[in-house]
Amino acid sequence: MSSPNETTSNEIPVQAAGCVLWRRSPVGGELELCLVHRPKYDDWSHPKGKLKRGEDWLTAALREVAEETGYRAVPGPPLPTMEYEANGRPKQVRYWAAEAVSGCFAPNDEVDRLLWLQPTAARVRLTQPRDRELVDALLSTMRLS
Fold first, then answer.
1. 117-140 per-position pLDDT tens digit
2. What is the C-alpha to C-alpha distance for residues 126 and 60, in angstroms, rounded to an integer?
3. Alpha-helix runs per DSSP H in the chain
4. Whole-prediction pTM
5. Where are the beta strands (DSSP E) in the chain?
6. What number does CATH give the domain 14-142?
């Protein structure tokens, strides 16, 4: 039997990368996580996207953060890789913790809304349960849980 993070196809997985983007609240200094809303899927997720030809995983993750959120990020430690089926194909997404250091959001073709939420609220808002695992991984990595 396969777990939720395993793919069952022999196809080469779609390769994607993303970040669990975080910052300290400008008001009280609490940890906040960035979630993006993609109208195409009507979901809330961490910023992520497919690798471009010849692009390495981390470069893709930081590019996707910039494209989807408008923020420049400083990468931190790697987080768990998620493997699942998407549109009938296996998909592998590598994630990193990343601190937002500058920028601002403007709606675009892929993302129409962005929220900065405390971890507990982010867990509730995330559409996919597998994305909640990344919140826990970030907290463990930062020793804030």
1. 999 999 999 999 999 999 999 999
2. 22
3. 57-69, 119-125, 129-142
4. 0.89
5. 14-24, 31-38, 43-45, 48-50, 71-86, 89-103, 113-117
6. 3.90.79.10
